[in-house]
């Protein structure tokens, strides 16, 4: 009698070695200056932490670092497309700006949820205007934590409005809560706090 065939791997057998590529490679940056930042000194304590381009590497990183809610005030995480430095002066940011979402009620759980949701929206290419996205930052501050979504072409109001509306949706923000968009060149040139160029 013929021997029963050995159990074969089928197409439904998970392959745990397989990695799922992301459309872009991303770099996590960390900054935690001990003194108040100034425009001229910005960047001196900013460091790239890790670059990844697969889903698995992202979770490996995320699961092994602190969440923003565990960081001390003054710390910032930046997650940017690889090759873009999280500085207004980087050529890919220079003509851009950022949407700012201020976390209400000093809620650390909400801060962590907003950070994860905004990161997943970026690396999962959830924004319709994905080409516009440079990166996302989470600024942990005593005066109030915030998420900043940096985009490339500040002059294009239509595209920035779409990005801003989608950001609110991904953060589950109510329609009544407003977020503002600042233009980096206006921030750099203004002696006082620059006004928001757009709002949604
Ligand atoms: P911050 O850390 O983004 O905000 O910028 P924070 O701590 O909430 O302070 P505030 O000033 O916005 O109230 C702190 C300071 O760092 C800014 O005011 C700038 O002087 C400087 N800075 C921040 N960024 C992101 C840049 C940058 O990209 N380039 C330069 N040159 N300076 C920057």
From TrEMBL:
<dbReference type="Pfam" id="PF01652">
    <property type="entry name" value="IF4E"/>
</dbReference>
<keyword id="KW-0396">Initiation factor</keyword>
<keyword id="KW-0694">RNA-binding</keyword>
<keyword id="KW-0810">Translation regulation</keyword>
<dbReference type="InterPro" id="IPR001040">
    <property type="entry name" value="TIF_eIF_4E"/>
</dbReference>
<dbReference type="InterPro" id="IPR023398">
    <property type="entry name" value="TIF_eIF4e-like"/>
</dbReference>
<protein>
    <recommendedName>
        <fullName>eIF-4F 25 kDa subunit</fullName>
    </recommendedName>
</protein>
<comment type="similarity">
    <text>Belongs to the eukaryotic initiation factor 4E family.</text>
</comment>
<dbReference type="GO" id="GO:0003743">
    <property type="term" value="F:translation initiation factor activity"/>
</dbReference>
<keyword id="KW-0648">Protein biosynthesis</keyword>
